[in-house]
From TrEMBL:
It holds the Pfam family Cupin_1. One of its GO terms (molecular function) is manganese ion binding. It comes from Herrania umbratica. This is Germin-like protein. The lineage of its organism: Eukaryota, Viridiplantae, Streptophyta, Embryophyta, Tracheophyta. Disulfide bonds join 32-49.
Length: 225
């Protein structure tokens, strides 16, 4: 009888661990160019695939990532994503890219997480104070100041940020281990949700005065991506 329970528990663990590691699947074919209209496609996991015979170079191409973008906004940064929505040929391949521009003197990519991807960032220009925080109970901050050519990794799911600590523009590129890594910007999700979270919840969670919570919820939370 005990053996049975063990087997059931083992099977359950095996099932849940395989589900837990089921981020972007490994490709099951050479190419799978994403399309939104299912009528002309072949179904696999991820998005629908175009008939491979109809794939073109344009399906695997994006241009303009050399161009800095305007960082004049409340947080002083802008993220240019290059994921499966920009390059449909990334479908099922488990990888994507971003360019991030930061305004001088404090331009910030605010604390956020990518629910589906680890990130590896390389600094192109400027000086960035970067960091991530490990999960409970330690909540250890692992941080560093980076300069051009420096590379830093933000593990999947962990809250992280980058701030320009120089007097000039800063820019970085980052690869992410998902065709669609997703972004949850902490302040926006918590104080800018739609509809708003009951202020009593946030008053207790953040140990704040109820009016401070209402003030924060009334603010406009800029999305930099
Ligand atoms: C599919 O839909 C997404 C989201 O609406 C859009 O960004 C993308 O350009 C579309 N892709 C194609 C190949 O039509
Ligand atoms: C950048 O954006 C700001 C705010 O929208 C605007 O006032 C400014 O003219 C823009 N700068 C450039 C160089 O486009």
């Amino acid at each position: 009888m005990k053996g049975h329970y063990f087997l059931v528990a083992f099977a359950f663990l095996a099932l849940t661990s395989s589900l837990a590691s089921a981020y972007d699947p490994s490709p099951l074919q050479d190419i799978c160019v994403a399309i939104n209209d299912t009528k002309t496609g072949i179904f696999v996991n991820g998005k629908f695939c175009k008939d491979p015979k109809l794939a073109t170079a344009e399906d695997f191409f994006f241009s303009g990532l050399n161009v800095p973008r305007n960082t004049t906004n409340p947080v002083g940064s802008v993220v240019t994503p290059v994921n499966v929505d920009q390059i449909p040929g990334l479908n099922t391949l488990g990888i994507s890219l971003v360019r991030i521009d930061y305004a001088p003197n404090g331009g910030l990519n605010p604390p956020h997480t990518h629910p589906r991807g680890t990130e590896i960032l390389v600094v192109l220009e400027g000086a960035l104070y970067v960091g991530f925080v490990t999960s409970n109970p330690d909540n250890r901050l692992i941080s560093k100041v980076l300069y051009p050519g420096d590379v830093f990794v933000f593990p999947i799911g962990l809250i992280h940020f980058q701030q320009n600590v120089g007097k000039t523009n800063a820019a970085a590129f980052a690869g992410l281990s998902s065709q669609n890594p997703g972004v949850i910007t902490i302040a926006n999700a918590v104080f800018g949700s739609n509809p708003p979270i009951n202020p009593d919840v946030l008053t207790r969670a953040f140990q704040l005065d109820n009016n401070v919570v209402k003030y924060l919820q009334s603010r406009f939370w800029w999305k930099n991506n």
